[in-house]
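Design job #97: recover the sequence.
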């Protein structure tokens, strides 16, 4: 058996998408695994966001598995990791993890994390062998139906701004994320949804001050799928008043999602972010999927009570 690791090629995206759907659809026990994730395009979106961080594993020259690295400044994530079901059980996941860790081996990356399901306990053991440890419950919540109508005052979408205003907003987003967790920077996610036209970044302002933002996907071909919107990352300043700021940001996200034709909107948080979790529940969001957040070297990360971050590490 010959193993090769290299960047995933654009010509391989359709094949890689099939591996992803078969792997996770089989894990979920779907009658037709290829229907997993509907018409969402997580593989294509992750590849387009950073082609050099999309990992292909070939077994004897045949594409057998993939993994995707997301680099958010001081935070480094990987996933979804998928191995084609007929080729599972051969240890092919291990080199995919090792290659992701190599790509994340940068001085600025402090927190290396991942989301995994606990449906199959072997997955936790797999990542433990590479230095990851389960740190908290990771919950994905959804709001349905999405409330339309008037958004909260101060809401705007990044794509509607002039080029100069967009540059100023990007700088403000970097500053806000960095204030909440040192070095955190999701500029790549913001630019990716804009360039791919798979969503937008919702901005919440009070006067000229940025009070929060959320990077969102919506519709067919995005990471959300038809009739759905999804928050990939969202944040408001920590500390006193965080619950109210997050509530206003959620209202803005709902208004944007409704305008984009979504009837369901999703967002994630962690069990340590008590204020964020309680704010989501109070606003009518309900859990629909739970897994575990694992951190490399048991780094504490940002899953703490007064941090108001929404994220989807899947």
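Job complete. Output follows.
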């Amino acid at each position: 058996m010959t193993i090769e690791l290299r960047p995933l090629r654009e010509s391989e995206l359709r094949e890689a998408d099939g591996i992803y759907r078969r792997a996770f659809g089989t894990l979920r026990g779907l009658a037709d695994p290829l229907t997993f994730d509907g018409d969402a395009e997580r593989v294509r979106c992750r590849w387009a966001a950073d082609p050099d961080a999309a990992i292909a594993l070939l077994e004897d020259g045949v594409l057998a598995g993939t993994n995707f690295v997301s680099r958010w400044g001081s935070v480094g994530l990987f996933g979804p990791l998928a191995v084609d079901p007929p080729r599972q059980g051969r240890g092919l996941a291990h080199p995919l993890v090792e290659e992701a860790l190599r790509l994340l081996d940068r001085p600025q990356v402090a927190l290396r994390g991942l989301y995994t399901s606990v449906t199959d306990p072997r997955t936790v053991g797999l990542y433990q062998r590479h230095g990851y440890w389960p740190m908290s419950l990771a919950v994905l919540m959804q709001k349905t139906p999405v409330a339309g109508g008037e958004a909260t005052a101060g809401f705007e979408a990044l794509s509607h701004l002039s080029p100069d205003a967009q540059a100023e907003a990007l700088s403000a987003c970097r500053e806000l994320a960095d204030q909440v967790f040192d070095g955190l920077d999701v500029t790549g996610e913001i630019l990716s949804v804009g360039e791919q036209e798979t969503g937008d970044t919702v901005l919440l302002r009070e006067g000229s001050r940025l009070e929060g933002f959320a990077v969102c996907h919506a519709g067919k071909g995005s990471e959300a799928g038809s009739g759905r919107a999804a928050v990939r990352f969202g944040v408001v300043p920590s500390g006193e008043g965080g619950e109210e700021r997050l509530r206003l940001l959620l209202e803005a996200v709902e208004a944007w999602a409704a305008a984009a034709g979504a009837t369901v909107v999703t967002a994630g948080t962690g069990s340590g972010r008590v204020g964020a979790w309680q704010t989501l529940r109070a606003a009518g969001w309900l859990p629909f999927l739970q897994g575990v957040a694992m951190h490399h070297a048991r780094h504490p990360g940002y899953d703490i009570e007064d941090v108001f971050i929404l994220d989807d590490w899947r």
